[in-house]
Amino acid sequence: MQSNRLGWILLAPTLTILFFFGVLPFIYVVYVSFHSWNPFAANPEMIFNGADNFRRIVFDEEFLNSVGVTVMFVFFAVLSELILGYILAQAFMKDFPGKSFFRTIHTLPLIMAPIIVGSVWKLMTTPSIGIIPHYLDEWFGISMNIGTSAFAAFTTIVIMDIWHWTPLVTLTLIAALVSLPPDPFEQAQIDGANKRQIFWHITLPMIAPAVVATVFIRLMDALRTVDEVWMLTGGGPGSSTRFVGVHIFKEVFPKTNYGYGSTISVIVLYLTIVACWLLYVTMLAPRNSKEG
Amino acid sequence: MANVKIDNVIKRYGSLQVMHGVNVDIEDGEFVVLVGPSGCGKSTLLRMLAGLEEISEGTVSIGDKVVNDILPKERDIAMVFQSYALYPHKTVYDNIAFPLKMAKRPAAEIEQKVTNAAEILDLTKYLKRYPKELSGGQRQRVAMGRAIVRDPQVFLFDEPLSNLDAKLRVTMRVEIKELHQRLGTTIVYVTHDQIEAMTMADKIVVMRDGRVEQIGSPLDLYDNPGNVFVAGFIGSPSMNFVHGKIEVKDGKKAFVSDGGLTLPLPETTAAEGQSVTYGIRPEHIQIGDTGVKMQVVVVEPTGSETQIFAKAGNDLIDALVKDRVMAKPRSEIGFIIDPKDVHLFDRKTEKRI
Ligand SMILES: Nc1ncnc2c1ncn2[C@@H]1O[C@H](COP(=O)(O)OP(=O)(O)OP(=O)(O)O)[C@@H](O)[C@H]1O
Ligand SMILES: [Mg+2]
Fold first, then answer.
1. pTM of this structure
2. Chain A contact for B14, CB < 8 A?
3. Which of B48, B82, B102 to mutate to test the interface with A (most CBs of A within 10 A)?
4. pLDDT digits (tens, 9 = 90+) for A55-66
5. Is residue A16 included in any domain, yes or no?
6. CB contact under 8 A, A184 and B87
7. Is residue A59 part of a domain?
8. For ligand 1, mutation pick of B19, B40, B163 (most atoms within 8 Å of CB)
9. CATH number at residue A55
10. What is the pLDDT along chain A (292 residues), one digit of tens a residue?
11. B73 vs A190: CB contact, 8 Å cut-off?
12. Do B52 and A190 touch (CB under 8 A)?
């Protein structure tokens, strides 16, 4: 199999790099997760402690809380991004003056680094300096303080994430919508379906693969959101915006709990995979296996 | 069931006008076929009937009700697209059931109608499959099934058989015809295949470049084509045309072609010296030792028939005869033309004389 061997040779550089930068560190993290290791503790050695870290995690209220907060964040953010992204995508499917200008403008958030997004939003929301609390107060008499109000902090982060990532959803959905054949939609009109029925019975199932892919990407991204949140609230007030990413970060950097931090990472990875798998199974798999 | 009236319909895409005032009256229960060459506006007209395409000017009525501003879903029509337009993510069963589900019919009725349609169309085995697991002919039948469970006012078919092989096409042609006889619903059927048109239609509408050229029953169009285009379009193989003039020989009018060939002429109102196009169908030419002397060019036997291409000067004429003819190329042959089978058209206006 000449061509096969050539294929492997051509792939070798990539595979080598992947191995050293992807697989090895991953194995190392799994390895570390079975140890207690804090270089600044009384005993800085790496000590094997079996499944202790994993046992600890189950009763770690801070961790469980962070999972809860993250799930809530992911749910609100991704759902809003999907709905808003779909509406925008439909709007961009139509022709209107200045369309390409708006489409370009609306993707700008995507090219901003999360750390900058975090800083900008911090500027905008800091009480007494920020433009948002100022106008909320002036127009609606609402006082907003993300430093003291858990609700304000959490909501701001959700809105920030929506602002930052909806364009990605819009773009993938536009791509999906553009590639749809027109006939089933015309046929559905003739078959007597109204707009709502067409959406649920035709559009949604036909763009489902793209929707699921987008949700995967956003889900994985949202689950490891750290920098924006770190910049904006530092996980507070209290632990109201202490997402798992932030939790791991705090565990590993200020506390230098490398072993336990690794354990949380492994568990979070596991949870992510399970979430994606569930999503895949419920949304796409039944169809794929039947369409086979 | 309903009659359909297309009244002076004009269609523009931006500044481009593709339909120039089309008038068609379709009676309740009639099987009407729209034919014409590619790009003549058949699909556009059908889509305007369906409500998928805006009507620029004129009116379309279904059942004496103007439907210009009525949405497709409220027109109570069923349509089969040229591309079948099946829902790729639905099974055959769900595809056929879709219009009924949208109309919120009771589950038992849906089940019964879909099963029934599947039986008629021989799809029972495939109900659980997805469109991509079906052959072209099966997909076509699914599209048909989705239309017939509806019991609509009007059926619209846009070249539903064009993707099928010759044999399946004949079978489906018969099935559609049978369907029409059983249901008695008005059908508007688009095709560019004139054999389909001839065999299925109660009434044929011949179109060209966004205009109606002629409307009539199949045999009417065959016997009395109104112009050169219809004469050439209807009938297979298509009519022979010879350009020439009317001359008077021995006190009698005669047709002399530009190449000098004299052909038999019926009683005609054509004036002496008038430039005309002379038309004769291949199947109306007999061969023998008498008649017009021609030189054989090619002989094409098909088993049941023989088609003979022959020329005299520059004029090429073909004849279609039932016998097996063993004429050699370049041998001489006589084409016998009965004057009553001749069609004469004015050369400039192309209209029948
Ligand atoms: N969206 C459009 N914009 C501009 N012109 C169009 C559009 N759709 C169709 N046309 C033009 O309208 C004319 C009629 O098209 P139509 O599709 O009705 O032809 P048809 O008779 O169905 O041809 P065919 O047998 O190839 O299907 C064509 O000249 C075509 O170029
Ligand atoms: Mg067409």
1. 0.78
2. no
3. B102
4. 888 888 888 888
5. no
6. yes
7. yes
8. B40
9. 1.10.3720.10
10. 566 888 888 899 999 999 999 899 999 988 888 888 887 777 777 788 888 888 888 888 888 888 888 889 989 999 999 999 999 999 988 888 888 888 888 888 888 888 888 888 888 888 778 888 888 878 887 777 777 878 888 888 899 899 989 999 999 999 999 988 889 999 999 998 888 999 999 999 888 888 888 888 888 887 778 888 888 887 778 778 888 888 888 877 777 788 888 888 888 888 888 888 888 887 776 555 544 3
11. yes
12. yes
Residue B1 DSSP code = -
Residue A58 lies in domain: 33-291
Q: Is residue A8 part of a domain?
A: no
A189–B51 CB contact, under 8 Å: yes
Give chain B positions within 8 Å (CB) of A187.
Answer: 79, 81, 85, 87, 146
Whole-number Å distance between alpha carbons of B43 and B153: 19
Domains identified in chain A, total number: 1
Distance (Å) from the alpha carbon of B289 to chain A's nearest alpha carbon: 58
Q: Is the peptide bond before B329 cis (omega within 30 degrees of 0)?
A: no
Q: Is there a domain that residue A5 lies in? A: no
Q: What is the DSSP string of B69-101?
A: TS-GGGS-EEEE-TT----TTS-HHHHHHHHHH
Specify the 3-state DSSP secondary structure of B246.
Answer: strand
Residue A184 burial class via C-beta count within 10 angstroms: exposed 0-12, middle 13-18, buried 19 and up: buried
Q: How far is CA A286 from CA A49, A176, A200, A280, B77, in A?
A: 42, 21, 17, 9, 33
Looking at CA atoms only, how far is residue B320 from chain A in angstroms? Answer: 42
Q: What is the largest CA-CA distance in chain B?
A: 81
Count contacts between A and B (CB, < 8 Å). Answer: 68
Strand, coil or helix: A150: helix
